[in-house]
Every structure is written in structure tokens, then in C-alpha cells.
Fold:
Amino acid sequence: MDMSEYKDIFKAESEEHLQQLNDSLLGLEQNPKEMEFINTMFRSAHTLKGMSATMGFSTIAELTHEMENLMDMVRKCQVTVNDSLIDILFECLDTLEALVENVDNEKNVNISHLQATLTQAMEGTLCAVENITETASEFLADNDHGTFFEGNVPVTEINVPQIEFSADENASIENAKQDACNISSLKVTLDESCVLRSARSTLVLINISKIGKIIKCIPCESDLEDEKFDRQFTVIYSTKESDEKIADTIGKIAEVKDIAITPLYTCDTEKSENASDEKGTCTPSGQNGPAVRRSDTVKSIQSVRVNIERLDSLMNLVGELIINKIRLNQLASDLNAKDLDESLANLDRLTNEIQTEVMEARMVPIDQVFSRFPRMVRDLAKSEKKQINLIIEGKEIELDRTVLDEIGDPLVHLLRNAVDHGIETTEERIKLGKPGAGFVGLSASRQRNSILIEVEDDGKGMEPAHLRDVAVNKGIISREEADKLSDPEALNLIFYPGFSGAQMITDVSGRGVGMDAVKTKIEALGGSVKVSSVPGQGSSIKLQLPLTVAIIQSLMVTVADETYAIPLANVVRDVGIKTKDIKTIEGKEVIMLRGEVLPLLRLHDVLGSVQENGEKENLIVVVVEKMGTNIGFVVDQLLGQQEVIIKTLDNKLLKNTRGFAGATILGDGSVALILDIATLI
Amino acid sequence: MAKVMIVDDAAFMRMVIKDILKKNGHEVVAECVDGLDAVQKYPDVKPELVFMDIVMPNMEGIDALQKIMEMDPAAKVVMCSSIGQQSVVTDALKCGAQDFIVKPFDAAKVLEVLGKVM
Structure:
């Protein structure tokens, strides 16, 4: 059977289970007696085992099998949950994650050390451990069962006449003879492929006892249930039915390879055949079951998995639809036809609904990102020997899939900062009169048209004076500039490139991405970052994110008769200036605005448009912010604020274009480019 | 052709069984995500055969089996077990399950059991 087509769904579902295992294990660490966590872990490990075995991923199957056994022992209170057990299980989860991630190569991964530690964890409960190794090795190595149980089980050539019967059994035999039953020995052989031999033998016993009486089993029934037999067992059996009937009944059971019937006592044959005919209907073979009525109320599946690209292209099409609708509106207003207006009003409503629906379809719960943080914070706290309570709120809040994909790294950085720089060590905290365990909060909430994510801690906070010193020492700003900054402004220094450097580097944070990268990323998504802090009491970083990146609020401007869109997230304000107020510093145009020097850039020059004849007396300037500095763009005209649908420039020719985040189509059908401030200047 | 209901908390397992059944001309009339779901859907769907997983959240397979057998003593339920669950399977058979299959199962095994039970 070719299983490769199931690989994707296997991986996706395995990841869900791994997440569940992770969550439960974190819960268990806090609350080692909570049965719900133990049960969930047991179930997830068990499900993973079944899935991976079906796919033929034997390493995953082995590992999950051992984990399941361990969880089963925890469940039965044969093993107690302690720190080392939690650590081992986390290690197992990490290994599983890697195995699932690289599933084609999973057979080459050696997990023997993990299995050894798992076995150690299970030790101390000797009989249970024996049991486990038994089933495990049977499961894993496909042992030759014939030799496996050799010595215990005297099943291979049973010489029927030599069977010894107990007093009870002899009584049953006498009863059977009086009832005119035949007594036979049934030797049942199961398929080589039969895995649960004990259950299979039980099924045989259940089915034959419907048409007769079992006098004795060899090996005995409890040995059969404990699977203390090879593939054969023998039943001494009394019935009024014919041998064919018996063979038929047993033959109806799957995985039975062979049945040999040896008569031990035969009563009057005719009589028994008659009986067989009369009673034929009560045997399983004659049983047809009540007619099953056809049901018309089959419930359909409630959800489907859709590739995100499909949704993107759907969104794109909706965008096109809206543009066409706007053009139709314009044409209709020229025609002044009442009927047309009415049906266009309907079209208006419908396209709006479609747009909302498609946007909603792209929404996923933020928990998909949040869910990996408890583990991360736990590991960080452990490695730094800090105690931390991570409180997550609003994980059910939904936001656009594209936004979600992008905020993971920034949030990792913020949380690491909180744990690493924010929260003090337990001793320090106790000295300061704070609770020993630090608090780190991660919350999401929905504002009117945006999502607010806040990362806060109750750690040492940030000292504005210290930040000023660091910024001056690193040459980011001069001492005079630093002294001019208000305290809240000084906090914003952390967003300057190169600020979070040497002094703050530890092995967990401060490396690679700095706060400037966080800010750049969030702004690229059309969001904003705000920081606040009270020294000694903690810090809070708020990320404001748009619900979607497919549609952005823009300020529409014209430059040399072309329309451009400037994302509103970048715009600080617009101002009118007089040309004569422009000054030149080092050959660059600036203007003094509210006591600050504002560098000016003429969008004509930046965009390479042709400058109009003659200099106007009054100029319009749009002040935009980039990396904490303000820059003024000189434009020809302000058209106002508008929601635009982004069409990305991602085809082969245009994908390396810098300075533009994309394009949008306006109501009159013309194309407007959307400026990307980060790469434009 | 049989009308089959599949009960398994893993979408993956449901898909594997479903594909096997569909490729061989059987009809999957319902998929249930746990025992509770199965017990609720059973009277509406009236399947000819139920493939029932054992370890599931909300309601385990063996409890669902018992509830279904109470509703419909002629119900045909096949337990889908993993290795290491002998005793549960044995209990299920005593409670009236018709048969069982063991994961990892292949198409031949599923069809063999189906053929024998129907």
C-alpha cells in the first residue's frame, strides 16, 4: 500500500499532537497529580504510535510506544512524576519533533539512549517493566514467537487422548453425552500475520460458544488471554451442530488460517444433523441482521483544510471585483439610470460581504503562535535558574495568517528580553520584596480595526538615564541630543539599530535580532510598537497590528500627475511649508519644524519624475517616520486617506523592485504604486 | 458494498481507512471524531458497520461500543486497536464487538475483516 500520499496529513496531525503533548507536559510540570494531563499525553502518544506504525515510520512508533507505556504506568500510579521524568519526556518530545520534521530519514535516527532512559524511568516497578519490554520487543523486532515462549507452552503437538480432565470438565462431558451432543477437539491455527492473538482466540471462543459449549481450552483460557500460546490452540467442545457448521462458524472469523476437527465422541448422527437444520438460523453464518434502513441524513464534514495560496488568490480576485465595481459605479453615475443604480447598490453590498468573508477565512487563532511560548519560556527560565509564571491571555483572538507568520520571531525576541533582561533572579527578587517567581504576561486583544499584543514583565524595568548613557557610548546620538530627550523618548532609544549590543548580550538574547529588527518587522506589516517602563517595576511593549495585510490604510498623494499610496502607518503628519523657509545643510534641504530639523526629500527626485516648471511658493510635505527619524516628503497634492488592496510585485520581473511595497488599482482603473518607506530611502 | 461509519480521533487514520473502503466500493456514511460523536450520529446514520478506535478523548471506544450495542443489539462494530491492547479488545469482544483490526493495518486486513463480518 502506497502511503506517501498521506504524508502531509500525517505530518500536520502529528504536529498537532506534539503540541498537545508539549502543552500537557508543561501543565504536568506545574501540577504533577493532574490526571487530565496524564490522560491526554497517554492518548496523544498512543494515537501517534498508531499513525506512525501505519505509515511505516518505525522509529517514531518505537519511541511513542515507550512513551505510551511510561504514561500508562504514571496513570496507574506505578511511576511518580518528578523533575527528571519531565525532562526525559521533554527530550522525547524534541526528538519526536525532529523525527516528524524529517520523516523520510527517521529510520536512521538512533534513539537507543532515550529508550534506555525511558526504561530507567520505568524501573522500580519490576513486574510492569518486564511486561513492557516483552510487548515492546515483540512489537519492534517482530520476534519469532515460536521460540519466544518456548518452554512455557505445550501447544505444538497435542495428543488429544492424553488430555487430563478435571472433575468439573468430566461432568460437562457427561452432560454433553446425555444431551446427545458430539464432542470434538478443535485445533485452531491463526494466521502468521495475526498480531493480537489473545483477542483473536477470544473471538473464536465467543463465536463457537453461540452454537455449543466449551468444555476445556488448551492452553487454559487465562493463558489464552495472556497470550501465552503460539499460533495454535485447542478447544474441547460439545455441540449438536455438524462439523461443517463448526468449520463455517470459525471460518467466518478473520485471521484464522486453519481449523482441524477431531471427533472424540459421536452420538446418533441423524439426530445431530436434524438439530443442525432446525437451529441453523441462530448461528452467525445464518444471521443476516435486521435490515438497515438507508439514512438520508448523513452529516457532512464541518471544516476543510485549504492551502493559504488559494485564499490569497481568492482575496486577489475579490480585489479585482471591487475595482470593477467602483468603475461600474463611476460609469453609472454618468448614465444617470435609476434601475442600474439599484442593482449596483446590491452589487456593492454583495462585494462587501464577500470581502469580509474572505478576510475572515484567512483568520487563524493567535494561539498557533502563542502555543509554543510556554515551552520556550520554561526552558529559558530553567537555564537561567529563574522562576517565571507566564500568563497568556487572548489566545483565541484571530488574525490574518500572513501577519501571524511574521510575528513569531519578534515575539520570541520580546519574550526572551523579558525573561533575560527583565526578570531578576529569585534571590534578587526576594531581596527587593517581590514574589520569588517573576511574572511575564503575553496578551492579545482585538481593537476596532487592529490587534493589540502586549508583552509585559514585573522585572527591573528600564532606567531612562542608563539608556541615554548606552546610546551615547555607542555613538548612536550625541550627549546634547541625549539630554534633550524626555524620559518616554529615551525609552525609544532601544529601537535604534545597534543599540542592543555588547553590554546586553547573553547566550539567549541580544544576539542576532535587536529591538530595531522587531520594530522594522512590525512596521513592515503596517503596525506600530510602543514601549513603556517603570524602573524597578517592569516594562511593557505593545504591538499594534492590522487585522490583515491584504488591505492597508494609505494616504494618497500625487507626484508629477501620478498617484502614489503612502501606508498610513508610516505617516506622522502632513504640513504646508513655504519654499523660502527651506534651508540647506551640507547640500541637503532641510526645514525647521517645531524646533526640529526635518530633512526634506523631493519625491520627484526620489522617484525620478520630471519636475514641473517653476518652483511653487507653497509646498506640501508629508512627514514620514523611518527608524525613529522623521523625514519630509515633498509632494504635489494630497488626495486623502483611502483603503487600498495590495497587489504584490512578486512576479519574476518585478520582485527585486525596491522602494515599493506593491501596487493597487484605483477606482478609475489606473494603477497606483504603494511606497515602501523602509527601502525607498 | 457496505455503509460504514468510521470513529477515530486522528483524521489521518480516518483518511487511511476511508480510502481503503472507498477504493473497494464501500461507502463511508459518517466520520466521527470520538466516542461521543459516534453515539450521537449512530441512530441518524444507521451504518451497516462501524470501525471504532479504542483510545479517544471524551468517550473511549469501548464505552461508545456499549452505548451503541444498547441502542442496536444487532450493530456490527469492529474495534481498531493498537498493539498492547489485548485486554481492551478482549473486553470489547465480550461486549459484542464483531471483530477487530490491529494498527498498523493494510488494505487486505481491513477488507478481510469487513468481508467476514458482513
